[in-house]
Amino acid sequence: MYPEDLVMPMKKQLTDYGFEELISTNDVENMIKNNGTTLVVVNSVCGCAAANARPGALLSLTNEKKPDHLTTAFAGFDKDAVDRVRDYLVPFPPSSPAIALFKDGELVHMLERHHIEGRSAEIISENLKSAYNDYC
């Protein structure tokens, strides 16, 4: 588990923009019951989360169509919540960072670490915007 003082600024980068934290399995169970679309960012301390995933997710929200709900859980910190989120991401293997879009509780779009690592925030944002245009 990562220390709180390390993780909190990274969490804040998303929560300051309205992302709801998924801290417990109960939070995840409530999230999956959301009507409409829900974006889930599995946050991480790695460089590709800092340079690509978080900025890409935030930049994607400039799209005309966007998810109804914004959520995040932090790998290596919100362990129970992340484990439960990953149950809903099957058949994709555990990955952090990762970004998933759910519609009415069903996974409709997924970016795994290998889709994020080495790609710019702008490319990630465009990928997400395309998914929003299809599902939101």
Overview of the structural elements:
The protein is α/β, with parallel strands linked by helices and 136 residues long. It has one domain: Glutaredoxin, CATH 3.40.30.10. 46% of the residues lie in helices and 20% in strands. It has 6 helices and 5 strands. It has helices spanning 4-15, 25-32, 47-60, 79-88, 113-116, 121-135; strands spanning 20-21, 37-43, 69-74, 98-103, 106-111. A 5-stranded mixed β-sheet has the order 1-3-2-4-5, with helices on both faces. Strand 2 (37-43), helix 3 and strand 3 (69-74) form a beta-alpha-beta unit. Helix 3 (47-60) packs across helix 6. It is globular and about 40 Å long. The chain starts with a helix and ends with a helix.
Secondary structure blueprint with pairings:
Blueprint: H1 4-15, E1 20-21, H2 25-32, E2 37-43, H3 47-60, E3 69-74, H4 79-88, E4 98-103, E5 106-111, H5 113-116, H6 121-135
Parallel strand pairs: 1-3, 2-3
Antiparallel strand pairs: 2-4, 4-5
Helix pairs in contact: 2-4, 3-6
